[in-house]
Amino acid sequence: MKKVVVALAAIAVGAGAASAAQAQQKLVVAGYGGSFEDIMRQDIFPPFAKQHGVELDYVAGNSTNTVARLQAQKSNQQVDVAIIDDGPMYQAIALGFCAPIQGLPAADLYEAARYKDDKAVAIGIVATGIMYNKKLFDERKWAAPTSWDDLKDPKYKKQLVVPPLNNTYGLHAVVQYARAKGGGEKKIDAGFDTFKNEVGPNVLVYEPSPGKMTELFSSGQASIAVWGSGRAKAFADTGFPVGFVYPREGAYALLSSVCPVAKEKPNPVAQAFVQYLVTPEVQAKLATSYGYGPVNKKAEVKDDPRVPLPVGERAAKLIVIDWDTVNQNRDAWNKRWTREIER
């Protein structure tokens, strides 16, 4: 009987150890939802999981949500790897949430993809421009938009969708309208005034959710939007007649970026996953499946005639905003936006 008890105890201990080992084999990744999450789960993560024997625990949310999550969990970080836009990434680095990346293939990466002290790295270049329903435009004999000013056209009344200011696409639009009237990141008032008086009357909704954005287009409620090339490419891949333009004044650059989260006991595969995301093979997949401009010089990609990718000359011409100034003012701007624009 004693031997049986000892044996059962050994089995219980072994089962507990196995359970603990299984728990350690999870990699918690916080990143964008919608089509990006689908691509991560279906195309990007499975080969890595097979190689490293790890299970993906994916936490979907926009960049602001992810930084807020890191702040809320700072005494006990649950996230191992964070994928967020460049502006919020600068905030995450400043708040000490990102650990230096080890083993980056520096010679293979475009310099613009790297952050100071390798605390983060870009995994794709996105262009913020104008998306529209090509079929509807053709039926109505409307010319394709060519300028940011086209969003002021009264024919789009209650058909325009713009993400709010706490989303990078919406922020880019506000900065553009400020610049167009002699202002900019350091003088933002004109951007708010333009939305309030000229763009706002056309806005159906200020929508942050990618799923809701595509739903509004699919249902025919929306015909034109401010959105990113990656999101537009994924939408086009569903069969929707997407048109996407780089406005003549310039499209804006968004760097989708990643960092291993700084924590007392870092997940041993977090660094490997970050390195994996910038390999030529993964970069090519992200370009093909999601429309990212690659950050690895060795990635082989083909352009997409429906949603031209931010590569080559198009990538070189993208406008980069002053994130230092933006991040100093963003909380105040968000409150002002809620108060004045999304009342």
Overall outline: globular
H/I helix tally: 13
Helix amount = 40-55%
Strand content: 15-25%
Low-confidence residue ranges: 1-24
| Helical/strand content category | alpha/beta
Question: Whole-number average pLDDT?
Answer: 91
The helix/strand order is: HEHEHEHEHEHHEHEHEEHHHH
Keywords: Signal
InterPro entries: SBP
Protein name: Branched-chain amino acid ABC transporter substrate-binding protein
Signal peptide: 1-23
Describe this structure in words.
The protein has 343 residues and is an alpha/beta fold. The protein has two domains: 156 residues, Periplasmic binding protein-like II (D-Maltodextrin-Binding Protein, domain 2), CATH 3.40.190.10; 147 residues, D-Maltodextrin-Binding Protein, domain 2 (3-Layer(aba) Sandwich), CATH 3.40.190.10. The chain has 13 helices and nine strands. Strands 1, 2, 3, 4, 5, 6, 7, 8 and 9 form a nine-stranded mixed beta sheet that branches. Strand 1, helix 2 and strand 2 form a beta-alpha-beta unit. Helix 3 runs parallel beside helix 4. The longest helix has 23 residues. It is globular and about 55 Å long. GO terms for molecular function: thiamine binding; thiamine pyrophosphate binding. This is Branched-chain amino acid ABC transporter substrate-binding protein. Keywords: Signal. Pfam families: SBP_bac_8.
